[in-house]
Amino acid sequence: MSTVSVSNLNKVFNKGKANQVDALVDVSLTIEKGEFVSLIGPSGCGKSTLLRLIANLLEPTSGDIVVAGKSAKQSRLDQDYGMAFQQAGLFDWRTVTKNIELPLELKGWDKAKREARSREMLDLVKLPEFADHFPWQLSGGMQQRVAIARGLAAHPPLLLMDEPFGALDEMTREHMQAELLSICAATGTTVVFVTHSIPEAVYLSNRVVVMSPRPGRITKIVDVNLDGNRNETTRERPDFFATITAVREALRAGGGHAHTGAGVEDR
Amino acid sequence: MNLRLRAALPPVVFGVAFIAWWEAAVKIFDLKPYFLSAPSKIWDQFANNKSLIWEATRVSGTNALVGLLAGTVLGIAMSFLLSRYKILGDIVTPLAIALNAIPIFVLVAVLNNMYSITSEIPRRLMVTLVVYFIVLVNVAKGLTQVSPTQIELMRSYAAPESAILRKVRVPNAVPYLFTALKISAPAAVITAFVSEYFGGAQNGLGSRITSNIANSKNAAAWAYVLGACLLGLAFYLVSIIVESAATPSGAKRTSGRSQ
Amino acid sequence: MNPLVQRIVRRSAMFVVALVFIAAVWELYKVVGPEDGGALFGINILPRSNGRAMPHVWDMLSRYGRPELRSSERKIWRVVLAGAWFSFRLSLVGFAIGATVGVALATLMARFKVVERGLLPYLVVSQTVPLIALAPLVVSWGGKLEVFGYEWPRWLSASVLGAFLAFFPVAVGMLRGLSSANPASLELMDSYAASWTQTLFRLRFPAAVPFMVPALKLAASSAVIGVVVAEISTGLKGGIGRLIIEYAREATGDPAKVFTAVFGAAVLGLAMAGLVSAFDLYVMRNRPKEAL
Questions:
Q1: ipTM attached to this prediction
Q2: Is A77 in Cβ contact with C192 (below 8 Å)?
Q3: What is the pLDDT of residues A202-233, one digit of tens each?
Q4: Does domain C68-283 have CATH number 1.10.3720.10?
Q5: With C214 labelled, which of A13, A136, A211, B120 sits at a CA distance of 20 to 30 A?
Q6: Would the pTM count as exceeding 0.90?
Q7: Shortest distance, CA A25 to any CA of chain C (angstroms)
């Protein structure tokens, strides 16, 4: 059973009014268990909208979304996924540990179980010494790691991420990408990852879903076949660059511009 | 429906419903006048005593206005000194913070003793004092909390302190002055009333309200309260109009309280 | 020394310097000012500087050590302290009631948009209108009302007035705070399928705390003002307001007396402010330190 199955999805904003936007038109996508899939495209291509539809934070105009065998709404109610955003979104007034325990509190877990799980997650993201610190005492990268720990705290089968590393500097970003891969390998989580960055998408994913705007649609899905495990040397290998080129060309084809589509980076 | 009208609907509905409920409650529960008077009776009293209410409003209003003007002028003058000599700011700021917490209108008891019994000066002095500190703190803030980048620019032009004052500090302080006015205007009216409770000439709104209650004429007292509310509202509206008139359209406006 | 403590010590020292300066100006005026008052530019603006109108600062301070009445043994500082304590307790009750009602109303307004749109304009306008004018009316209820069989005690009117004045800044501040929650955090709570109540307690209330800090300070001073005005406009026995009025009447014979009560009222205000500040410091102890 696939983890996420999207069929003939349409999303229209402000239907019938002057500012009607066809955010997504006839989008179909299947994501298998354990896959890491990136959504990439210029502004307005609907990648964040698609993510939010899967998360049931938005309702589709038409079409089906099945997450972990259930409707998107049921999955949200059952807490079958975790989310991470560009702003870590940690609560200033809670310690790191209490931030990670937030979804567990809402699910009604008892204290002992919560504490055990948050300790486990802190070890996973390699921040055990910061259990009793407050978010403002941590760097941006560390805050994102806590956000990821929070997203995975309930061990959901699916992790949805909306440009979580967008606010970080380049070095921290590359480091976080490696961390994320090792965490996902350890937990076997399926990941849907929205990004602006082509190298990031290629480094992290099994497949890169290229989208384009007006109307928002999927133009091409690029398979990423890199030899061996991904590590620091991966970014310097020829097959890495080849895949990046393939993605860039798909973006150009979709955007119809001579140069790289607006809003997509070569970083 | 026009969007503006739609926005105005809930408050209007609430207001009308409240007055209607008030009127009904007095009739249904047979509430005695010494507890709550019916809006209709209050309005009657207001209409009948219009000239008396106006006289009392004039007295309290004049006290508030004199104090407001004097306090503003003195506050602005002192704030210039404060911006020039940092040590003064260090001394005055803790005092201003402390005075914020204290019901300083009780000083009227002291002031009454220092002037003749029929003088309006104690009340005007009290309003002046209250307004002075509000204006002082806010305008001083405006004169000193200037963008460091702008100061650096002026220094690179080898501009003297007086030029920096004129061209950078004063324009920066203008919105702060209007914030201060929007707070001081109602405060002046309130202080003017409260000062009347300490004795002295019994011709203002505050004393009228008390005397009407003492004579069990509650509906009349409420009518004077209505007059007081109108006075306060008028002062606030004038301060907003002054701000609008003096601020070029599109420029930064301030909202709400700062101190 | 802890920088916070350092700042408090410095501010207190400066405050004392300011008081000394004021005392110096007072005494200076006594030396140069006209004994029976005078005019400046034609207005009788200069106060009388004789011993009956303006006692010496030392007289004011030493008055504390002498008895209140010629007949009794009770030193005046005890009387003033008792009066201030009485008013302090009334202010505390008023503050508590006003804050509770304010928070409740703000929560209601945050939950139901229509309530917010209907009431908020009145809340905002109320801060420009002299609600204090209602003081004599509220106080007049005392002794004449019966609620659930209990007679309305007169002191409760003073607290109710304090509550009435304190309520508005708390309601406005709390509403602003409840609406200040980060949209991303609200989305997060949505993704957890959290109920409105769960979101209220885990996100909106904690996010509102920084907005409550200045609101509570204003509410505390408003409660004190309400209580003192209530006491003054009706001479409520036991409070500092009544003492001020009483001593003011005796000013011709005993000029320093009224000052003792006035300073007592000042101490009352500072005590309330101190209490609220301590509460603020406690509640914000884990937050990023910004300028207090």
A1: 0.83
A2: no
A3: 999 999 999 998 888 999 999 998 866 788 88
A4: yes
A5: A136
A6: no
A7: 24
